[in-house]
Every structure is written in structure tokens, then in C-alpha cells.
């Protein structure tokens, strides 16, 4: 019986994650055509919805926790994310600046 | 004296393979691999971002992207992430091998459906002149999106191998540990896909 309840708890976690992910995906796919490409700030909304969905999936699908037993994983993920952001944002910053100073459109 | 020399010639025996038998270390090691793969994807994302708009007069996002197909692909991959999770808890709670294999096969079919749609999209793009050698933008696009597709392809292959292993040797501890890593890999591919539809498709469409 304990086995069975553990199963349904896990199943509920996955289903919650799935429903939230579907809602966040629908919101992004609805918002972009609704706002249109003229208003660039729609990408900020898409970015926030994306980060929200990443968080939901890390928590519900990949079982990443802030609990003590999961600290090693969390530290690894946060450090990798830091490196990722330095690479991606650094590249966009430098290359964007270069394009602007060279008067090329980007 | 003889005791001393024997302690020098025989260091305390350490099994170098022992770390590979600790399930927690195996899973942690797989996380390290996935994070290195994440950095790899990050570099290719960075190239794509710098190439937005570099279409050299060729077709760009507005001419090439099919958002209906993109939505279908997103839903297929997301649903497959759920079904691989259900397969994992079926395994953890020792449900029947049949129900485990059922969810793995469903996941495999969803993954293959995703790949079919993606390949169809690429062929549609090619028909409109959107081929990798046309422009820097398209080179960057075809460097990134098919890289994810290649990961999904290998995930499908891995799933096939797991099905064969379960049928041949049953749900041994080793098979279970391999499947746990496959499930992590598959969830990770859906995380990357969130970045792809947000940055590559929506970002490209708005800024391209």
C-alpha cells in the first residue's frame, strides 16, 4: 500500500510538471503572434515564460531540489549556468557592439 | 624490516572501478556530462544569436518558419518527456515489465514523430531555398537545430537498445541504472528544446 501511494505521489509530480509546461508553452505560442514582431519586448515575455518552464521541468521532471542530498547537483547546475550565461551574453554583447560600431545591421 | 618492505611493494588495494558501482556517483557523473553538453549547445546558441539577420539576401525566419509544425513538435517532445518519466516511476515502483515497456515504446514513438516533423520542416525550408550554404544565418540555424535533432536520434537509438536489454536480461540493477540515465538525457533534451523554440524560432522571427 505504501508502495502504491509512493507511485501516485511521483505520478502527480510528473503530471503537475506536464500541465504547467503545457500552459507555459501555450502562453508563449499565443503571445508572440498576438503581440506581433513590431514590439520587440514580446521576447522578454517569451524569455520569462521559458525560464519558468525550465524551472518547472528541473523541479518536476529532473527532481532537482534545494534539499541537502541534492546540493552537489544543484551546485553543478548553477555553476554550468553561470558559464553558459557568460559565454552567450558575452558573445551577444561583444558581437552586437561590434556590429553597431561597424554600422552593420544585426 | 620484511613487513616494511612488503607495505611499500603492496600499496593498500584500491579498486579503481569501485566508483562506477556507486549509483549516486554514476548519476552525478551523467549530470556532469549533460552540463558539458549544455555548454556546447550554449556556444552554438551564441553563434546563432550573432547570425540573426545575416541572411545575405536569402530567405530568413519570416519566409521559412512554420509555427504550426513547431507547436506540434514542441507538444510531441514535451509529452514524451512525461511518458519517459512515467516509465521511470513504473520501474522504481517495480510495476510489471510490460507496463514499463509500454511507456518506453510510447516515448520512442513520440520521439520518432518529433523527428519526422522536424525532417519534414527542413525539407520544406530547403524547397524555399533555405539550405545551410545559402547564408551565415542559415548555416547557424542548421548548426543548432539539427544538433538537437541528432541528440534526439541517439536518444531513440538508446531507447531501442534499452528495450532489447530489458527483453534479453530483464530489469537488472545495471539495466535500471542505464535507463535512469536515458530518462535524464531525454528530459534534458526537452530543456534544450525550450531554448530552441524561444531563441531560435521566436527570437529569429522577431529580430530577423
In short:
With 106 residues, chain A is mainly α. Chain A folds into 2 domains: 1-63; 66-106. Chain A has 3 helices and no strands.
Structure explained in plain terms:
The complex is a heterodimer of chains A (106) and B (208). In chain A, α1 (2-35) runs antiparallel to α2. Chain A contains 3 helices and no strands. Chain A has 2 domains: 1-63; 66-106. The relative contact order of chain A is 0.07. The mean pLDDT of chain A is 89. Chain A has 106 residues and is mostly helical. The model of chain B has no long low-confidence stretch (mean pLDDT 91). Chain B has helices spanning 2-9, 23-51, 61-64, 67-92, 97-127, 136-169, 173-207. The radius of gyration of chain B is 22 Å and the shape is globular. With 208 residues, chain B is an all-alpha fold. At the A-B interface, α1, α2 and α3 of A face α2, α4 and α7 of B.
Question: On the 0-100 scale, what is the average pLDDT of chain A?
Answer: 89
Q: Mind summarizing the main beta sheet of chain A?
A: none
Order of SSEs of chain A, N→C?
A: HHH
| Strand/helix succession of chain B | HHHHHHH
CA radius of gyration of chain A is 19 Å
Task: Provide a count of the helices of chain B.
Answer: 7
CATH architecture of chain B: Up-down Bundle
Shape of chain A: flat
CATH superfamily of chain B: Cytochrome c oxidase, subunit III, four-helix bundle
Terminal-residue CA separation of chain A? 61 Å
The total tally of domains of chain B equals: 1
Amino acid at each position: 500500500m505504501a508502495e502504491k501511494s509512493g507511485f501516485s505521489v511521483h505520478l502527480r509530480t510528473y503530471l503537475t510538471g506536464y500541465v504547467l509546461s503545457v500552459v507555459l508553452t501555450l502562453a508563449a505560442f499565443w503571445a508572440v503572434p498576438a503581440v506581433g514582431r513590431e514590439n520587440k519586448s514580446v521576447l522578454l515575455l517569451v524569455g520569462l515564460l521559458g525560464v519558468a518552464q525550465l524551472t518547472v521541468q528541473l523541479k518536476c521532471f529532473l527532481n532537482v531540489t534545494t534539499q541537502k542530498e541534492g546540493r552537489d547537483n544543484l551546485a553543478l547546475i548553477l555553476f554550468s549556468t553561470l558559464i553558459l550565461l557568460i559565454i552567450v551574453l558575452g558573445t551577444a554583447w561583444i558581437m552586437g557592439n561590434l556590429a553597431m560600431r561597424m554600422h552593420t545591421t544585426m | 624490516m620484511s613487513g616494511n618492505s612488503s607495505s611499500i611493494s603492496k600499496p593498500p588495494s584500491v579498486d579503481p572501478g569501485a566508483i562506477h558501482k556507486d549509483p549516486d556517483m554514476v548519476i552525478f557523473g551523467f549530470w556532469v556530462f549533460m552540463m558539458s553538453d549544455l555548454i556546447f549547445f550554449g556556444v552554438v546558441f551564441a553563434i546563432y544569436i550573432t547570425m540573426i539577420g545575416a541572411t545575405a539576401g536569402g530567405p530568413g525566419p519570416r519566409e521559412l518558419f512554420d509555427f504550426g509544425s513547431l507547436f506540434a513538435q514542441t507538444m510531441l517532445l514535451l509529452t514524451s518527456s512525461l511518458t519517459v518519466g512515467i516509465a521511470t516511476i513504473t520501474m522504481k515502483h517495480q510495476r510489471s515489465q510490460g507496463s514499463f515497456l509500454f511507456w518506453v515504446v510510447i516515448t520512442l514513438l513520440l520521439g520518432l514523430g518529433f523527428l519526422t516533423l522536424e525532417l519534414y520542416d527542413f525539407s520544406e525550408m530547403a524547397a524555399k531555398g533555405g539550405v545551410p550554404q545559402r547564408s551565415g544565418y542559415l548555416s547557424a540555424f542548421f548548426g543548432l537545430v539539427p544538433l538537437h535533432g541528432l541528440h534526439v536520434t541517439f536518444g531513440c537509438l538508446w531507447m531501442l537498445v534499452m528495450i532489447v536489454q530489458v527483453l534479453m536480461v530483464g530489469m537488472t540493477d545495471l539495466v535500471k541504472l542505464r535507463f535512469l540515465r536515458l530518462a535524464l538525457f531525454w528530459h534534458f533534451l526537452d530543456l534544450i528544446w525550450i531554448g530552441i523554440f524561444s531563441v531560435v524560432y521566436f527570437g529569429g522571427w522577431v529580430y530577423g
